[in-house]
Write a structure and sequence with these properties.
Radius of gyration: 19 Å
Number of helices: 11
Helix content: 40-55%
Mean pLDDT: 96
Distance between the termini: 35 Å
Low-confidence stretches: none
Oligomer: single chain
Strand content: 15-25%
Order of helices and strands: EHEHEHEHHEHEEHEEEHEEHEHH
Largest sheet: 7 strands, parallel
Shape: globular
Length: 335
């Protein structure tokens, strides 16, 4: 297939592009290479995919509707994976309009481009953040998610609603994937594992919010990519049994589905830190802080639908995933 991947220089986008290329697909990579975090890291990720002859690297911002439309018209992708977004819960509190421009306007531009070129299947990144104020565990795609706690979460919930509208009106098959705390080699510098590793190796204190009482469903990058590919290959159809009298939030009569992709094994943040300390063979100096605005105390993915429909369950243990990240980090920054 010819697959268009937005956010192709990003953490997940780069890893996904590599896997698609390795199995023989063509990849049209779209990324604006913004400076939200280290551009050199993004360029290093891109260098891995640029070695492949079936990879096309395009510098386009999804906020540019006309530019994005031209990419679709020129290259006619069969399927699309949208991973371009303004990420980060805390940054959304400081700079909310960045999320409106990229996550709302940019996603609308993408939906329009898919409609105009009759894309076979759009898979897009949602987030576990959409569960917001929910406390019933594990989080299920069948639960109501109407109480987001950050604009980032609200933008991802909005993406799901926008996608359903296009599935309903234009019969575009869409699948939203709620990712749960993705980590691993080539990860994002603004995320906990990266920040903790850098600080511990530098002999600096790490900041631990909610006084260390967070639980997170940490999900290894390879498991995320495997889930995305399997979902991409399964084009959703409308559910004829769907009832408006008892509406299911995860499906529809339209070709629309939602799935959680998480490890299904929440880990206490302090246990996560202990695993990291053991791999680094160094103790962390910990600065305990209160819960940050926009954060949720716990996440826990119910992956029942992913297992039943797609036949896949993430399985990488945290100890293995953290070890692989640390090995990559030391190698990358030593080089």
């Amino acid at each position: 297939m010819k697959v268009l991947v937005t956010g192709s220089a990003g953490f997940i986008g780069s890893a996904l592009s590599l896997r698609l290329l390795q199995r023989g697909d063509e990849v049209v990579g779209v990324d604006n290479l913004n400076d939200y975090y280290d551009v050199e890291l993004k360029e290093a990720r891109l260098a891995r995919t640029l070695r492949h002859g079936r990879y096309l690297d395009l510098r386009v911002d999804i906020e540019d509707g006309e530019g994005l439309r031209q990419v679709f018209l020129d290259h006619r992708p069969d399927r699309v994976v949208n991973l371009a977004a303004q990420a980060g819960v805390r940054y959304s509190i400081e700079n909310p309009m960045a999320y409106v421009r990229t996550n709302l306007v940019g996603f609308a531009n993408l939906l329009e481009a898919c409609r105009q070129t009759e894309v076979e299947h759009l898979v897009y990144a949602s987030s576990s953040s959409v569960y917001g104020a929910n406390t019933r565990m594990p989080f299920s795609v069948h639960h109501n998610v109407d109480h987001p706690l950050s604009l980032y979460a609200a933008s991802k919930k909005s993406n799901e609603l926008m996608a359903h509208t296009y599935s309903h009106l234009y019969r575009i098959p869409t699948t939203g994937l709620r990712f749960f705390t993705v980590y691993g080699p080539w990860g994002r510098p603004d995320m906990a594992l990266f920040k903790f590793t850098r600080a511990i190796l530098a002999g600096e204190p790490i900041e631990v919010f909610n006084y260390g009482r967070h639980r997170r469903d940490f999900t290894f990058i390879d498991d995320i990519v495997e889930g995305v590919i399997r979902v991409l290959d399964r084009v959703p159809e409308g559910d004829p049994e769907w009832s408006s009298d008892a509406p299911d939030a995860a499906s529809s009569r339209s070709p629309y589905r939602l799935y959680n992709i998480g490890n299904n094994r929440p880990v206490e943040l302090m246990d996560y830190i202990r695993v990291l300390e053991a791999r680094l063979e160094r103790k962390a100096e910990i600065r305990m802080l209160p819960l940050q605005p926009g954060d949720v105390p716990d996440t826990f993915a119910d992956v029942t639908d992913l297992v039943q429909d797609i036949g896949y369950r993430p399985a990488t243990p945290v100890a293995e995933g953290v070890a692989r990240f640390v090995d990559w980090y030391r190698d990358f920054y030593r080089a």
